[in-house]
Amino acid sequence: MTDVRSELVADPVGEPREVAPTTRDVTGLDELVVRCTACPRLVAWREEVARVKRAAFRAETYWGRPVPGFGPPDAALAVVGLAPAAHGANRTGRMFTGDRSGDVLYRAMYDVGLASQPAVTGPGDGMRLHGARITAPVRCAPPANKPTPAERDTCRPWMARELALLRPTLRVVLALGGFGWQAVLPVLDEEVWQVPRPRPKFGHRAHAVLPATDGGPDLHLLGSYHVSQQNTFTGKLTPAMLREVLHQAKDLAGLS
């Protein structure tokens, strides 16, 4: 799987399942994530998009690599999406940055006090998150925004290690969409939290408490409809609905 000729990753790392557990801090993990070439289809797609570009961004240099998490290494809240957008985070190199979905998310996070400003353009715009970190089960932009189950599973160790490193401070995980919800459940179950049986079902404002198995605090798992244009344009997810669930996450995380 790792024998991939990548134009944009000069020093590829090995398989995520072997490399991710060796990292000792979030910064080190982020540095390894951007060097991943484990999924040939995703490598080819993310770099093709970076070469061809969208007309509106033709003058820009696309990131075209895996996208690391964004936010402080001592976050109490982890927001879990799906994967980078082809002309969003795959262009800017920062989660949920550069597309309309991200505009909705960051605006809502600003409104509830989790972000330092209401709008984002890219790294260097001064955006800071307060007590929250944004991550994803799949770190490369997938064709049609649909990673395969094998790609999701190959990428899983990155998120697993990220959440494990956040363990001292992490109190809430907010999954945006059913994909994020289903992807994060086995990760949490394999770490220090016990997922209830039967497994909790996804839904907007879904809430499950996962008991800790290491003697530490329990974890709250929340669900929200994804901030996709399909949901926000149709009114399935309104700004008020998103603010409401973010307020709940913030309160449960002790960030109020």
What layout of secondary structure does this protein have?
Layout lengths: L15 H4 L6 H8 L6 H13 L24 E4 L8 H4 L7 H12 L20 E4 L13 H17 L6 E5 L1 H13 L16 E4 L8 E6 L4 H6 L4 H14 L4
Parallel strand pairs: 1-2, 1-3, 3-5
Antiparallel strand pairs: 4-5
Helix pairs in contact: 5-9, 6-7
Termini, distance in Å?
44 Å
* Total number of strands: 5
Main beta sheet: strand number and arrangement?
Answer: 5 strands, mixed
The CATH architecture assignment turns out to be: 3-Layer(aba) Sandwich
Helix content: 25-40%
Instruction: Indicate the mean pLDDT.
Output: 96
- Class per helix and strand makeup: alpha/beta
Q: How many discrete domains?
A: 1
* Level-1 CATH class name: Alpha Beta
Gyration radius, to the nearest Å?
A: 17 Å
Number of helices: 9
CATH topology term:
Uracil-DNA Glycosylase, subunit E
The fourth-level CATH homologous superfamily is: Uracil-DNA glycosylase-like domain
Q: Strand-and-helix sequence, N→C?
A: HHHEHHEHEHEEHH
Which features characterize this protein?
single chain; 256 residues; alpha/beta; Uracil-DNA Glycosylase, subunit E; 9 helices; 5 strands; 36% helix; 9% strand; DNA-deoxyinosine glycosylase activity; 4Fe-4S
